[in-house]
Design a protein that fits this description.
Structural class: alpha/beta
Strand content: 15-25%
Bound molecules: N-(aminocarbonyl)-beta-alanine, zinc ion
């Protein structure tokens, strides 16, 4: 493979920004410095561009199934790459009667190999708790390159719902082998009661989704999960934090010396609960769990990412069609498939509404969208950072472009974009995936199947301070 030098761009890492050159040899970054030259190397002029590590989106759903409605799959992973995300980590549910590792490997063989366009790994999702061998299996996940395990405390009645016993036993087993437990923290019982009460009162519209999932539904489950982690003496990663109280609980636990990590998502930082009130069932486009919140919560989340109390920003991407799949809940909001698309817009949204508005610096963006996600999920031996020896996953971001976000530019193969018509500052213009150009002039030019599995290592960042 050829040698390339990306010249005179503003290189951004999680700790600094500087004008410099990056020398790529094949798939790897081999040198970073000033005035680099090498006979025969292709020169890429990056003057005026921010040069960022490719994003690592560790909360992506390409196989999530909500009451029989399945999201778009890995054949839409070029949407990630076009938006500057070169690595995705997808949640694979344990199939009933099968082990987690077998479920992941079968899924990869049947639906990912030869299809993925971004590099990828998987989180295991434990679901089959009737067979307690699931807890014994956790110790086998690291050898299969799966250092993270998700449990859904929400979704009462769904086969993947995890009760407190399941969460506690998983935490106990995980800490013995360096696996990080991730929780979707919402009180499933309370949601179930509220959904039924609202329906009986005649509330069937999408706004009922927000009413049935008020912030305390999340705060209560977050605090409970933190307490379970304290009891198990295990670290914990709380997925998609949307409420101020949850973020406060995570910050408090850390101030007491516990290792509790928090993730938030692009939409919780930017989108408002009132979107759910849009008429003609348009509100369904914004149904995700936890539910969207108000400005008070968004400001608290921006503050938390700025101060390092929340550690990562992901998309929680779910490719559900509005016309087709979201209408499943036309007569009852509780049946609207949970989750919204957002994979392609993560970097542009964070740049426009975070960096450009002065809420975070470019270095903080890099940390939150690439470097720390890679460290938590054990991928930081090759991903999430612009450094010698790392994969040459590189984004050239033009900060001067101004545009409008639209589904017309989306590759997610869904019939809407929650950011339709929003102003966008800057643009992903060029992307390299392991040294190969896959986005040119903001157009995806890569190949199906180009994405490679990147196995994660156990004892990720959440285990800092723990003894092996
Ligand atoms: O609404 C969401 N977040 N859907 C995806 C599944 C989950 O709960 O993470
Ligand atoms: Zn999710």
């Amino acid at each position: 493979m050829s040698k390339k030098i990306i010249k005179n761009g503003k290189i951004v890492t999680a700790v600094d920004e500087f004008i410099g050159d990056i020398l790529i040899d094949g798939e790897k970054i081999v040198e970073i410095g000033k005035d680099l030259n090498l006979d025969g190397a292709e020169i890429i002029d990056a003057e005026g561009y921010y040069v960022l590590p490719g994003g690592v989106d560790t909360h992506v759903h390409f196989s999530f199934d909500y009451r029989g409605n399945k999201v778009r799959g890995f054949d839409t992973s070029n949407a990630a790459v076009a938006g500057g995300t070169t690595t995705v980590v997808e949640f694979v549910n344990q199939v009933e009667g099968k082990s987690i590792v077998d479920s992941v490997e079968e899924y990869e063989k049947n639906e990912v190999l030869g299809v993925a366009m971004a590099d990828y790994n998987f989180h295991g999702v434990a679901t089959d708790f009737r067979d307690t061998r699931v807890f014994d299996e956790i110790s086998k996940l690291p050898d299969a390159g799966i250092p993270t395990l998700k449990l859904f405390m929400a979704y009462k009645g769904a086969f993947y719902h995890a009760n407190d016993e399941a969460v506690f036993r998983a935490l106990q087993a995980a800490k013995d082998c360096g696996v990080t437990v991730m929780v979707h923290a919402e009180n499933a019982d309370v949601i179930d009661v509220l959904q039924k009460q609202l329906y009986d009162e005649g509330i069937t519209e999408p706004y009922g989704h927000a009413l049935s999932r008020p912030p305390y539904v999340e705060v209560e489950a977050t605090e409970r999960a933190i307490n379970l982690a304290k009891l198990a003496e295990a670290p914990l990663y709380v997925a998609h934090v949307s409420a101020k109280g949850s973020s406060d609980a995570i910050q408090k636990a850390n101030s007491e010396g516990y290792s509790i990590f928090g993730e938030t998502c692009t939409h919780y930082l930017t989108q408002d609960r009132e979107e759910l009130a849009k008429p003609n069932f348009e509100g369904a486009k914004y149904v995700c769990s936890p539910a969207l919140r108000t400005e008070e919560h968004r400001e608290a989340l921006w503050d938390a990412v700025d101060r390092g109390w929340l550690n990562t920003i992901t998309s929680d991407h779910c490719g559900f069609d509005w016309k087709d799949q979201k209408h499943f809940g036309k007569d009852n909001f509780a049946n609207i498939p949970n989750g919204c698309p957002g994979l392609q817009d993560r970097l542009a949204v964070l740049w426009t509404y975070g960096v450009d508005k002065g809420k975070i610096t470019p270095s903080q963006l890099v940390d939150l969208y690439a470097t720390t996600p890679a460290k938590v999920h054990g991928l930081d031996y090759c991903k999430g950072h612009l450094g010698v020896g790392y994969d040459a996953d590189i984004v050239l971001y033009n900060p001067n472009s101004k545009s409008t976000m639209s589904n017309d530019n989306s590759l997610h193969q869904v019939d809407y974009n929650p950011y339709e018509g929003w102003e966008q500052v800057g643009n992903v213009e060029t992307v390299y995936l392991r040294g190969e150009k896959v986005v040119e002039d903001s157009k995806y030019i890569g190949k199906k199947g180009q994405g490679k599995r990147i196995k994660g290592k156990a004892y990720g960042l959440t285990y800092r301070g723990f003894k092996k």
